[in-house]
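Work Package 4 report. The design task specified in the project plan requires that, given a folded chain encoded as structure tokens, an amino acid be chosen for each position. We show below one input record used in the internal validation round.
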């Protein structure tokens, strides 16, 4: 796997966990399932199904080919590897969960994807180390799993180059999203393991838009993601009432 010659600030494991925006229980939750990350019939099946949709939307706006890309909260690397295969010049995936990162590295090695690296580092720490280093920054299905999502938004803005794109996806906070994303997805349809999400951490689009504006990112577009349990099909739409994606840009 190709490495890049960038200055790295050494941080001990203790310092990373004590000084960064992280929930240890959330890391443990996804680490326990790390070995199943690339199984399309596992608990991560929804991620495999929605990945082409979100990748195509990102690519249609930001044109991934030839760009330097960062995936914040990359987990097992499903999106990061897809962006590398799509033709990005270099993709970096970051996460604080050791086991999913190991799975991501192993899968990239097995598939021969060389324009891809993974690092165990917080977004805020990387922003201090490599400000304005990336053409595109993605942060998908991650904001609802950290104590201070606005800090992640600020870090993403610091990491992207002037004129670059930052993409987020998360879950809306309202009765419908509670019914669909928790009761429906986790307990009825069993699309996700029970306890995957905590309703209080869901984020209204207006809240995310405010954090983006305060950080210096201009909201350029939003899309909702819907699911039909009968056909088991996902699609993008204008309905942002449950799952939604936001495209933002840093001023040039």
């Amino acid at each position: 796997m190709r490495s890049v010659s960038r200055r790295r600030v050494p941080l001990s494991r203790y310092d990373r966990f004590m000084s960064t925006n992280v929930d240890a229980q959330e890391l443990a939750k996804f680490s326990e399932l790390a070995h199943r990350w690339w199984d399309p019939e596992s608990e991560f099946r929804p991620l495999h199904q929605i990945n082409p949709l979100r990748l195509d939307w990102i690519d249609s706006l930001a044109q991934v080919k030839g760009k330097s890309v960062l995936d914040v909260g990359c987990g097992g690397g499903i999106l990061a590897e897809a962006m590398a295969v799509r033709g990005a010049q270099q993709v970096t995936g970051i996460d604080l969960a050791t086991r999913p990162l190991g799975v991501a590295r192993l899968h990239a090695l097995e598939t021969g994807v060389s324009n891809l690296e993974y690092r165990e580092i917080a977004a805020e720490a990387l922003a201090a180390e490599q400000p304005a280093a990336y053409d595109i920054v993605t942060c998908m299905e991650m904001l609802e799993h950290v104590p201070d999502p606005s800090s992640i938004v600020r870090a993403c803005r610091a990491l992207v180059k002037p004129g670059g794109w930052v993409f987020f996806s998360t879950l809306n906070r309202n009765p419908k999203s509670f019914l669909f994303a928790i009761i429906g997805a986790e307990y009825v349809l069993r699309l996700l393991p029970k306890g995957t999400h905590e309703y209080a951490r869901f984020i209204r689009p207006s809240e995310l838009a405010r954090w983006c504006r305060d950080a210096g990112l201009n909201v350029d577009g939003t899309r909702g993601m819907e699911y039909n349990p009968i056909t088991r099909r996902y699609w993008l739409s204008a309905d942002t009432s449950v799952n939604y994606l936001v495209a933002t840009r840093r001023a040039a």
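Strands lie at 68-72, 90-95, 116-120, 134-140, 160-171, 217-228, 233-237, 243-250. Validation will be extended to a larger panel in the next phase.
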